[in-house]
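Before going further, learn to read the protein records used in this course. The integers have meaning only within a learned vocabulary of local backbone shapes. To see the layout at work, look at the sequence and tokens printed below.
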Amino acid sequence: MANIDMTKLRTAAEREAEALEAERRGMAVFRLAFFDACMGTSFGNGTVMDAIDFLLSQVSSQQSRRFDAITQFERWRPEIDAYLIAGVGMTPDQIDDLFRLAMEIERS
């Protein structure tokens, strides 16, 4: 059995986590690209946009207005986790993929 240096393995995992965190800090898209990605991404019985629309129909008018006022969606902002993880039920990986798609849409 090979002797594995756990320090190097942990360091590799830490490097991966740091790279993901850096990628997330750079994930920012304007509203239209974000909405296009949400409308084009299946989730549950519909799309991510359907889930967001349902969530917004259940929150206070103040919270709904705050969401409507967002012009640039940034992955690192706590509101993204509040809406998409806690509110809609997406996983962090699903949100990362959604932002990657939105960034691709914005570039095209």
